[in-house]
Specification:
Elements (H helix, E strand, L loop, with lengths): L2 E5 L2 E3 L5 E8 L8 E6 L6 E6 L6 E3 L7 E6 L4 E6 L8 E8 L3 E3 L3 E5 L2
Parallel strand pairs: 2-11
Antiparallel strand pairs: 1-3, 3-8, 4-5, 4-9, 5-6, 7-8, 9-10, 9-11
Length: about 120
């Protein structure tokens, strides 16, 4: 049974940091790219970052470049998203996703950036 479980969200002040984790089970993480997405209230879900399975290459949407870092630990079957210098506009529910022919999503973790 494929499962993705996000954790690490919370309330943080502007300029603060959070580290999100996506714990994967039910498939071999090594073989698949993993993406992080977010959805703010009243907005569509958007892609934030992803990391490939092959060479570990990464992608970031422009608004988070230089602030977010995605990484994977295949031994621990987790993909992390380190988020630094957080801004109020980063407030959203963050999800991880994997495509195995069928798309699987985690349940999401809330990130709130507010003073």
């Amino acid at each position: 049974q494929v499962q993705l479980v996000e954790s690490g969200g919370g309330l943080v002040q502007p300029g603060g940091s959070l580290r999100l984790s996506c714990a994967a089970s039910g498939f071999t993480l090594d073989y698949y790219a993993i993406g992080w997405f977010r959805q703010a209230p009243g907005k569509e879900r958007e892609g934030v970052s992803c990391i490939s399975s092959s060479d570990g290459s990464t992608y970031y949407t422009d608004s988070v470049k230089g602030r977010f870092t995605i990484s994977r630990d295949n031994a621990k079957t987790t993909v992390s998203l380190q988020m630094n210098n957080l801004k109020p506009e980063d407030t959203a529910v963050y999800y991880c996703r994997v495509d195995l022919g069928r798309t699987y999503w985690g349940q999401g973790t809330q990130v709130t950036v507010s003073s």
